[in-house]
Amino acid sequence: MQPPLPPEAVRELVCSCLHRDPVAADLRCSLFVAADFEELLADVSSLPGVRELVRLRPGEGDQHLALTHWILSSKSFAVKTLQKDEYAKLCNLTENEGISAPVPNFLFELDRLENFHSIIHNGLHCHLNKNSVFGEGTYLTSDLSMAVLYSPHSSSWQESILGPQLSCVALCEVIDHPDVKCQVKKKDSEIIDRQRSRAKNSEGGNVPQKYFIVTNNQLLRVKYLLVYSQRRHLSSITNFLLYRRILRYIGIFINGGVFCGKRSIF
User: Fold this and answer.
1) Which distant-in-sequence residues (6+ apart) come within 8 Å of 114 by Cβ?
2) Is 209 in the same domain as 245?
3) pLDDT tens digit string along 20-65?
4) Higher pLDDT, 161 or 94
5) Taking the C-alpha atoms of 62, 65, 71 and 77 in order, what is their torsion angle to the nearest 10 degrees?
6) Mean pLDDT value across residues 100-126
7) Cα(91)–Cα(141) distance, integer angstroms
8) According to the UniProt entry, what is the EC number of this protein (predicted)?
9) pLDDT for 212-239, tens place per residue?
10) Are residues 28 and 66 in the same domain?
11) What does the alpha-carbon distance between residue 52 and residue 211 come to, in Å, rounded to a whole number?
12) Are residues 105 and 237 in the same domain?
């Protein structure tokens, strides 16, 4: 294990990450908090927002900077922001029904917010999936509305500029292979391939339409995260106070690329 960095080096590295892409850094902190590591709750509960972190003076908040540095430092992947106009392009990636080799398909993965800290660090692992109604494996869908339904808003980082309630949908690249179970027709035929329509240990029968179950970890990888923020805004209308709930899309690109909405937050 490498020796810990001196506080000033940690401060410089953290501030560099926050200035370079504050929204992406904020998301990584939010996913870390959503993972709910009990032994770190004390430090997390007092962790200031990204605006405050970059304003800390030398000698202030060294423990918070050390924790933030650990969250942000990873050589295995990068998280960067995308422009909002990329959203439609990402959704179009899943328009083709079924699997078509050799070009990988893009499908939405069904998961809860608290799992994404592990997902972005370790990838998707079939044996860790608790959903087994239609068999063992990682569950995906070509229908975004279905993916959102299985990815409810959950509590995240209270200091996040994205909002304290987030929902994530992973857009994954999937390679055609018999280990991807789905409703697909046989080659040059109109007949459904029965060998691919049922996953191992299925209790519910064949895989439903628009569902895909990947039983081999090597056949998929996370390429994008679609992040939804749920906030309450207070506005005055004819002496009445009304809460308006706004669902805001934010896109995240994994493993190089770009993130949504360029704006200064400091």
Assistant:
1) 34, 35, 36, 154
2) yes
3) 888 888 988 888 888 866 656 666 778 888 888 888 888 888 888 8
4) 161
5) -130
6) 78
7) 12
8) 2.4.2.-
9) 999 998 898 888 888 888 755 333 322 2
10) yes
11) 43
12) yes
Structural domain containing residue 211: 81-254
User: Do 111 and 226 touch, CB atoms closer than 8 A?
Assistant: no
Using CA atoms, how far apart are residues 34 and 19, in angstroms rounded to an integer? 23
Report the share of the chain in percent with pLDDT over 90. Answer: 7
Quick check: 135 pLDDT over 90? no
250, β-bridge pairs: 227
Six-digit token pair at 153? 């808003």
Which pairing describes strands 240-254 and 79-81: parallel, antiparallel, or unpaired?
A: antiparallel
Q: What pTM does this model have?
A: 0.69
Domain boundary pick from 33, 53, 76: 76
- Cβ distance 90 to 253 under 8 Å? no
Owner of token pair 């405050």: 52
pLDDT on residue 107: 92
Within 8 A by CB and 6+ apart from 244, the residues are 232, 233, 235
129 shares a domain with 47: no
Quick one: which of 4, 5, 12, 6 has its CA closest to 54? Answer: 12
Of 233, 223, 230, 226, nearest in space to 254 by CA: 223
Q: Does 249 have pLDDT greater than 50? A: no
Q: Are residues 234 and 217 in the same domain?
A: yes
* Start-to-end C-alpha separation, the chain: 35
Sequence-ordered strand ranges (E) for the chain:
79-81, 105-109, 138-141, 154-155, 165-174, 180-181, 211-214, 220-237, 240-254
